[in-house]
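Sample intake — Putative glutamate--cysteine ligase 2
Collected from: Pseudomonas pergaminensis
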Amino acid sequence: MLTFGIEEEYFITDLHTRSLVSQPSAAVLAACRQAIGQGFAYEMFQGQIEVASPVFKASNEATDYLATVRHNLGRSLADFGLGVVCAGSHPLAAWREQRSTERAHFQQLFDDIQYVARRSVLCGLHVHVEVPASVDRIAVMNQVSPWLPLLLLLSCSSPFWDGAPTGFMSYRQAACDEWPRMGVPEHFTDWAAYLRYLALLQRVGAIKADGNGWWGIRPAARYPTLELRMTDACPRLADALALATLFRVMVTHACALENPGAEFTAEARWLLKENRWQAKRYGAAGTFALDDQGTMGTAEQWLRQAEHTFATTAETMGEAALFGDLRRLLACGNSAVDQLHCHATAQASGADEQACLRQVVDRLLAQSCGGD
C-alpha cells in the first residue's frame, strides 16, 4: 500500500466581523502551533496557517489526525474570539489589508511575483502519494493528469473573492493562472526530460530551486511523491478525505500499469486544459470532454467513467465505499454550490450584501470545525 500525506491551509477568522485576520498576535500563533503540533507551518500571509500531516498508511489515520487538528484548532482559536475557515477563498478577505509572513522564502516570493502574489489570498488542499523508486514519477503524472479537472470540480470552494461573487466556482484556480509555472504542467515525456527542464530554467535564472514549479500536479522536490495541488481547500473534512483517497487510487492504479502515461498525447493535454476551464468556471455544472472523439458529458457521467476505471483498484485498497461517497458529494453539491445557495437564501430574506457574506462565512466556520 502506497503511503500518503495531506496538507490543508486555513484562514484565521474574526468571529465578530467574520473577516480574515491580517495580523494575528504572537499568542494566537502560539496557540495554533500548540493545537496542530509538529505539523504546524506558516503560510504566505500572517492570517493563514497550514497543517502538514505525518505520513499515513491508511485512510482512518488521516481521518483521525485531521479531525483532531481541526477540532483542537477551532477550540484554541475560540479563546481569542477567532475561528478557522478551510476554503479555497475567504468571502470577506480584503487582500489589500493582508500582511505577508516575515520569512525569507515568502519574502522572496513577494519580491519576485509582486502584486500577483499579494492578491493570492487563497487556500488549497495538497495530497502527496508515494511513487515507488522503480516507477517513473513523470509517467505516473502523465497517466493521472487527465483526471485533474474531475478532482477540481469536486473540490471547488472559492466562488467569492475580495467580498464579491466572481462567477467562478474555483476563483482560486483562475488566480493561480496569473502565476508562472502553475495550472497544467508542461508536457514532459519522462523523468529525464523533467530534469532537463529544471536544469535549463536554473541555468537561465528563471527558477532558483526545483520546488519553483507550482503546477496543479508535480513531483515533490523533497519527497518521493506525486503531489496534487489543483484542488481547493475543503470546508467539509469528508470531502477532503474522499478527494485524497481518489487521488491515492489513481496513483496506485497508474503505478500498476505496464506503461503508465503512454496515452498522454498532445491532444490529451489540450483536452485537459479545456476540462480544467470548465471545472474552475462552472464546477460540476460544466460540460466535459470524455474522450478525443467528441464525446461530451456531465460531471456525473465523468464520475461514472472514473468508477469504471478505478473501482477495482479502490476495492483492492479497502476503499470500496469511495465512489458512493463521491456520488453523494456530487448530488449534495460541492462547497461552492453550498456557499452560493447560502448567499442566495440570505439575499432572498432581505439581507444586504455584507450580511449575506457573513452568513456564508458562518457556514464555513461551522463546517471547517466539524459541522455539516
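Post-analysis note: The CA atoms of residues 197 and 203 lie 10 Å apart.
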